[in-house]
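residues and backbone:
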Amino acid sequence: MSLPGTGVPAAGGPAAGVPKVAVVGIHGHGGSHLRAVADLAERGLARLSAVVDPREPQDAPAPWFASLGDLLSADAGTLPDVVVLATPIHTHLPLARAALEAGIDVLLEKPTTASLAEHAELVAVAERTGRLCQVGFQTFGSHALPAVADMIARGEVGQVTGIGAIGTWVRTAAYWTRSPWAGRRRMGDRAVVDGVVTNPLAHAVATALWVGGARTAADLEYVNTDLWRANPIEADDTSSLRAVGTDGTRYGFGLTLCAAVRTPARVIVQGTAGEIELEYEHDLVRLRAGKVVAEKRYERTGLLENLLRARAVEERLLCDVRDTGAFMRVLEAVRTAADPAPIGSAFVDWEDGVASVADGPGGAGRAGGSGGSGGPGRAGGVGQGNPEGDARHPVVHDVAAWCERAAREQRTFTELGAPWTLAR
């Protein structure tokens, strides 16, 4: 018995002695976590012991519970060793806290929490309980990241002058209706912060900060935001940011979900003697130094597999909750900023259908995010997270070029004089 389309085997059988994993939130992006558990089960490294979701699946691959509370209050033999939380952003803290306090290790989808204060609380819970809490920034499992850090340390590009991230993706109108919290900054008195910076292209921000050595909130001196939207939503879909680390590292981010075509997201390291470009969706690194141009694709370690190994041996978590503080400092700047300004209709065209640049070989995508938000993927178009429905999408004029400049010059759209900012 298996959940349709997942290939996840039923619980029990010969794998009963291996770590038990429960997946919370099995629809949307949760399906990719079910597949990850199935892959590990085939290798004898994990067993799916429960699935949790308000909507009962027609063919549950393991005992089903409507809520995490129901699972935690069930028979002790049903309790998992690890829970994977693929749930809406504003539920991350309460669900992760409940699991950790029950003595269960956690893999928590990004973004970590909905505010910097919540992040501090979650870190405190992990430290108090002594449990492991891994955050789902899959790029942190890429072997390309330490390779880039090593290139920088060896001086391959000379003195680093700036680190940037460029994301020019496409999201249709249907994407913003995928759930009640989609595109929201808040729901009642709860922060949600579901915008381009903090969810779909959060990997771009977190990866650039990792490359620059920023791990904790204290590693950033300040963050400037410039938030815009072309869609009729609360949150931002086209934004630029500038950040400066306490060590003087300058960061620039140009991110949009309103591009003409979807292109691979990139982190760029600029130096006095060259440049490193990381296509983090494909673990692809390009080094340009003088007349030398080198390119290499790296492997990636799955975060759930890493978490399971960390439980058994002295292996460090690849994305420990403590190491997402710098990203959360950026999220906090977005959360507390003024609401995104609308981009005037004179600078936006609405188109039907989604075009995607062929950006990698075929294969399973590496989508990631909360509740089906999408994320890194290796196949063209994979990870776009657009449910069926309204395929219209806005295209901001020349937005890809402005995102490139924002990242490379570490200046915001407004500072650069992007035309829609002048017409505010």
Summary: Residues 1-15, 358-368, 377-386 have pLDDT under 50 and may be disordered. The first strand starts at residue 20 and ends at 24. Residues 281 and 376 are 4 Å apart (CA to CA).
